[in-house]
Amino acid sequence: SNGDVAKASGPFVPTKDDYQKVYDEIARLLVEKDDYDDGSYGPVLVRLAWHASGTYDKETGTGGSNGATMRFAPESEHGANAGLKTARDFLEPVKAKFPWITYSDLWTLAGVTAIQELQGPAIPWRPGRQDRDVSACTPDGRLPDADKDHKHIRGIFGRMGFDDREIVALIGAHSLGRAHADRSGYDGPWDFSPTVFTNEFFRLLVEEKWAWKKWSGPDQYTDKTTKTLMMLPADLALIKDKEFKKHVDRYAKDSEVFFKEFSDAFVKLLELGVPFTTDERWVLKATS
Ligand code: ZEM
Question: Each residue of 126-159: pLDDT tens digit?
C-alpha cells in the first residue's frame, strides 16, 4: 500500500534496539580483538569517550562530545590525544556497519559499552549528538595535565562544571588500562586488573606506599611493594588534597558507592553541551 511506501522511504529513525545492535557489535569486537595491550581495547575506548567529552567549557558552551571533532587536526594532534587513533580506528568497522550513527554518539556509546563489558556499573546513555566540522575543533590545553596538582585538576574539571566528588569519582576510571611510554611518556598500569573496572585504583592509592620511580622518563610514582604499578602526579594529588582524599577514602572502602557515583558523573561527562531532544536514557544490555 501507499502507507508502506511512505514508511519505507521516510527518514530512518533508530530505536533503542538499533543502538543495542551497535552496543553488541562493539562488545563482540572487544572479545574478538583481544590481542592488544592487556587483552582489551576497552580502556582506550573509555579514554576516547573521556577526551571527546572533557573539552567542554561551560562558559562558552564549546567542546564536549557533541561534534566528534577529534576526527580532525588540530584536535587529533593535541598531545593529550596521542594514541587515541587506535580507539577511533577500532570503531571504524562499527561505523561502516551502522552508518546512521554519528561519530559523536558512537564514541560515547563505545565508552559506555567498554565500562559495562569490563564489569563496571550500568551507564544510562542516550543518543542525539551531531557531528560537527573542523571549525568546531577545541583549542589545545582543555584536558588535564598529568604532572600538575589539585589546583590544576579543580580548574580543568571546574570549567566543565564538576565538583570535588565528581572529579574523584571520574578519575577512578584509572582502574582501567595503562600509560604508554610512546603516547603520554608515562608507563604502566594503575592496578593488577587493568581490564576489569573496580575500585582498586582507590584502594591502592591509600593502602600502598608510593615512591618516585627511578627512570629517565617523566616523574611518576611506583608502588614500593611490587614496583610494577604506577601513579601519575595528578593521581597522588587526590590523596594530598584533604577534600579530594575524603572521597578517595569513601570509594576505597565501598565499591558500590564508587560504582553509583562514577556512573552518575560519567553520564554527566558524556552529555556536557549536547542539545538533546529527548530526556529518556537507556541502559543497554551487557553481554554477560
Ligand atoms: Zn586518564 N590518563 N587522566 N582519565 N585515562 C591516562 C590513561 C587513561 C589523566 C591522564 O594524564 C592520563 C581521566 C582523568 C585523567 C583513562 C580515563 C580517564 C594516561 C596514560 C594519562 C597520562 C595515557 C597513555 O599513555 O596511553 C589525568 C591527568 C586525569 C585527570 C586529572 C578520566 C576522568 C577518565 C575517564 C573517566 C583511561 C581509561 C586510561 C587508560 C587508557 C589506555 O589506553 O589504557
Answer: 999 999 999 999 999 999 999 999 999 999 999 9
Q: How far apart are the first and last CA of the chain?
A: 42
Report CA(177)–ligand 1 centroid distance (Å).
8
CATH of the structural domain 150-266, one choice from 3.40.50.80, 3.40.109.10, 3.40.50.720, 1.10.420.10: 1.10.420.10
List ligand 1's pocket residues with C-beta within 6 A. Answer: 43-44, 46-47, 50, 83, 144, 146, 153, 170-171, 173-174, 176-180, 183-184, 186, 232, 234, 266
Pocket test for ligand 1, best of 47, 231, 271 (most atoms within 8 A of CB): 47
43 cis-preceded (ω within 30 degrees of 0): no
**Integer Cα distance of 112 and 134 in angstroms:** 25
For residue 272 the three cell numbers come to 556536557
- CATH code for the part of the protein at 14-142+267-271: 1.10.520.10
* ipTM of model over 0.95: yes
What residue segments make up the domains of the chain, in order of their start?
14-142+267-271, 150-266
**To the nearest whole percent, how much of the chain has pLDDT over 70?**
97
Those residues of the chain that have pLDDT short of 50 are 1-3
CA-nearest residue for atom 23, ligand 1, is 179
